[in-house]
């Protein structure tokens, strides 16, 4: 048959938000001259043939509703954690005014910054729920990455403010008052941040939002810096006037380490980095599909908290167009069930006589009579 009959693109949008532990019997016995010896295999063949030749779209309520629900869960987690951290920060701020503790001020600034990160993330989740358009054909999921940049900027600003205040206080020491309240505020900061961290991480992992998980880890780090305020209060109780600003500087350094980790995560997302093990898993899944002779390429990228995949498969050059399409549809279906958080996959099949994208230009020229 003609070479051009083997190129099939499937851009199906799936939203499998579960662990994908299903046993899908696709890719076996789909009828290319093989006998079917029982009704089960015949049923599987008929299901796959209907999937191949019937117009099908996965942009239905079955796929959209889970995606919207994941955004709703993310928004709920953000607003609840914003309230929790806001109450924590306000309580600490009152004690900062009464005590004059610069270590507690640094911790309060960090908690305020952590609370404010809910705002850009919330906006990103709202934008991500908008439908794709002719201009934004992949939707608005990238808004999450832009929110990540804002979060990094806010963390950086809190680190600078904490370091500047601590350095000034180190040069011009001031006695810290209400030490028991300062210690209590440190404990409040730890408990508030830990509760928020657990909630964000749990929801983030459930809906597949790396940004929300990272924000939860950020809150957990904030909790540990809050415990450092106890050291400042203890040092001040012993008469060490330098203890409070020194701990404030330590907290500023801790914020800087959080900044580094957050910036690295945002950079990786902006550069379309994914876990290599995820690529290996996708490739092995595709190789196991019946009719796939080789996998020429697999590409994965995050768009918001959803993955998108592109794959180039090599199949028998003598297959019919329907048979090649059937293999591509089966491969796409298997992939969306095997890879967590995969929203859609585009699968292209090449004949084994002309495998790889480097043949495409030559084939195109040949069809148009060029040399």
Walkthrough of the structure:
The chain has eleven helices and four strands; from the N terminus they run βαααααααααββαβα. It has 371 residues and is of the alpha+beta class. Strands 1-4-3-2 form a four-stranded mixed β-sheet, with helices on one face. α10 links the parallel β3 and β4.
Mean pLDDT: 75
How many distinct beta strands? 4
| Low-pLDDT residue intervals, each spanning 5 or more residues | 1-66
The Cα radius of gyration reads 28 Å
Strand order, largest beta sheet: 1-4-3-2
What structural class should be given to the helix and strand makeup?
alpha+beta
Largest sheet: 4 strands, mixed
Q: What proportion strand? A: 5-15%
Gist?
Helix content is 63%, strand content 9%.
How are the SSEs placed, and which strands pair?
Layout: E1 12-13, H1 39-53, H2 61-99, H3 102-116, H4 118-128, H5 143-171, H6 179-207, H7 210-237, H8 243-270, H9 276-287, E2 294-303, E3 306-315, H10 321-338, E4 342-351, H11 360-367
Parallel strand pairs: 3-4
Antiparallel strand pairs: 1-4, 2-3
């Amino acid at each position: 048959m003609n070479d051009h009959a083997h190129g099939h693109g499937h851009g199906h949008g799936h939203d499998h938000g579960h662990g994908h532990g299903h046993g899908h019997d696709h890719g076996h016995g789909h009828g290319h001259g093989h006998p079917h010896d029982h009704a089960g295999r015949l049923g599987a063949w008929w299901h796959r043939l209907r999937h191949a030749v019937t117009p099908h779209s996965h942009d239905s309520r079955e796929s959209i509703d889970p995606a919207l629900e994941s955004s709703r869960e993310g928004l709920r987690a953000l607003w609840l954690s914003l309230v929790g951290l806001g109450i924590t920060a306000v309580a600490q701020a009152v004690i900062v005014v009464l005590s004059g503790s610069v270590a507690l001020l640094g911790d309060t600034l960090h908690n305020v910054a952590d609370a404010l990160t809910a705002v850009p993330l919330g906006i990103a989740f709202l934008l991500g729920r908008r439908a794709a358009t002719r201009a934004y054909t992949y939707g608005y999921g990238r808004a999450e990455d832009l929110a990540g940049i804002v979060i990094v900027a806010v963390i950086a600003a809190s680190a600078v403010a904490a370091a500047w205040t601590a350095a000034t206080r180190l040069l011009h020491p001031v006695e810290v008052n209400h030490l028991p309240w300062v210690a209590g505020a440190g404990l409040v900061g730890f408990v508030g941040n830990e509760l928020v961290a657990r909630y964000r991480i749990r929801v983030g992992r459930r809906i597949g939002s790396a940004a929300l998980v990272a924000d939860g880890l950020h809150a957990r780090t904030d909790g540990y810096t809050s415990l450092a305020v106890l050291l400042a209060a203890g040092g001040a109780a012993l008469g060490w006037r330098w203890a409070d600003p020194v701990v404030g500087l330590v907290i500023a350094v801790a914020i800087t380490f959080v900044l580094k980790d957050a910036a690295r995560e945002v950079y990786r997302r902006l550069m379309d980095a994914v876990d290599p093990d995820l690529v290996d898993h996708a490739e092995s899944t595709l190789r196991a599909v019946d009719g796939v002779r080789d996998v020429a390429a697999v590409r994965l990228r995050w768009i918001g908290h959803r993955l998108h995949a592109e794959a180039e498969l090599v199949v028998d050059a003598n297959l019919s167009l329907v048979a090649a399409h059937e293999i591509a549809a089966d491969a796409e279906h298997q992939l969306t069930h095997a890879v967590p958080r995969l929203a859609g996959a585009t699968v292209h099949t090449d004949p084994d006589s002309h495998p790889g994208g480097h043949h495409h230009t030559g084939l195109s020229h040949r069809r148009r009579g060029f040399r």
